[in-house]
Amino acid sequence: MSARVLAGPPTAEALLRDAAQRAGRLPAVPHLAIVRVGEDPASVSYVRGKARKAGEVGLRSTVHVLPETASQAELLALIAALNTDDDVNGLLVQLPLPAHIAEAAVLHAIDPRKDVDGFHPLNVGELWAGRPSLTPCTPAGILFLLRHHAIPLSGTRAVIVGRSSLVGRPLAALLLEADATVTVAHSRTRDLGSVTRAADLLVVAVGQPGLITPDMVKPGATVIDVGINRVVDAQGKGHLVGDVHPDVAGVAGALTPVPGGVGPLTVAQLLANTVHAAELQAAGHLQSGTSSGDRGEFVR
Ligand SMILES: Nc1nc(=O)c2c([nH]1)NC[C@@H]1CN(c3ccc(C(=O)N[C@@H](CCC(=O)O)C(=O)O)cc3)C=[N+]21
């Protein structure tokens, strides 16, 4: 028996159709600003993909590129300008940043109402308080994928491998909100297989090709592979592979492929978040608690 394939692109299309419809009801076309620092090839490619998809679904996007050598102050000045620009609804700074820039300071500086990545501590806190607003794209995309395929969550045992602030941690909050019983495993977890074998839903976001082997998976489980690993085969050809060994398809009930699984959902969710941010702003929603009329920087 082979696992049902949970394909990303058709699911992403459903999410994008809904976002485009909602965008059509807004007073202006939502505008996403993307900031990239430096020329990391993966970041260049991801940012290009996000801007292209935005155009395809009829959203506006602008990409702001700073050189690898830009100072933290220069980046913060750009963020401040985009925060106060009323024409910008969504703002994201592509990660990772160069080592001389403090990621936390940058994430704090983004207006939480424009924070389409959901990485600002205010949005992180709201998520963990059970009031999700702008939520991180990969975890929210995974929830959309699971719901779209009618995979039950309430009362089930979910195991997440990986505790990153981009995926593992926010996904734990969302699955908890969906009434799953959630375990977060990581590199120090003892006997990982005994933990993952208990999972009805297994999500893997580690960045280690082939980490999850068939013996680590409960028969019939849903397996979500968030890993994006570039590997070179014996012929010297490059491939993208996930964290889940291909043989897991013989044990799992459902499985996301890499590529063509979670990645396209992440991009679609980013655009859905941009529409959501524009909706909040159009409704005059003041999530940050600043005084009415103050659309300036979030004051800590
Ligand atoms: N501020 C910020 N927000 C992010 O959301 C963010 C980030 N920084 N930094 C890097 C990670 C990674 N990420 C991906 C997006 C799309 C694909 C994607 O579309 N993948 C395709 C393949 C693309 C390819 O061929 O490289 C797929 O899986 O089918 C993958 C990974 C967003 N991230």
User: What pattern of helices and strands is seen along the backbone?
Assistant: EHEHEHEHHHEHEHEEEEEH
Q: What is the CATH architecture annotation of the largest domain?
A: 3-Layer(aba) Sandwich
Number of helices: 9
Overall strand count: 11
Main sheet: strands, sense, barrel: 6 strands, parallel
Shape: globular
Strand composition percent: 15-25%
Oligomeric state of shown chains: single chain
Question: Ligands in the structure?
Answer: 5,10-Methenyltetrahydrofolate
Report the CATH topology name of the largest domain: Rossmann fold
Overall radius of gyration: 19 Å
Helix content: 25-40%
Mean pLDDT figure: 94
CATH class of the largest domain: Alpha Beta
Sequence of strands across the biggest β-sheet: 1-11-8-7-5-6
Broad structural category: alpha/beta
Keywords: Amino-acid biosynthesis, Histidine biosynthesis, Hydrolase, Methionine biosynthesis, Multifunctional enzyme, NADP, One-carbon metabolism, Oxidoreductase, Purine biosynthesis
Family: Belongs to the tetrahydrofolate dehydrogenase/cyclohydrolase family.
Protein name: Bifunctional protein FolD
Function: Catalyzes the oxidation of 5,10-methylenetetrahydrofolate to 5,10-methenyltetrahydrofolate and then the hydrolysis of 5,10-methenyltetrahydrofolate to 10-formyltetrahydrofolate.
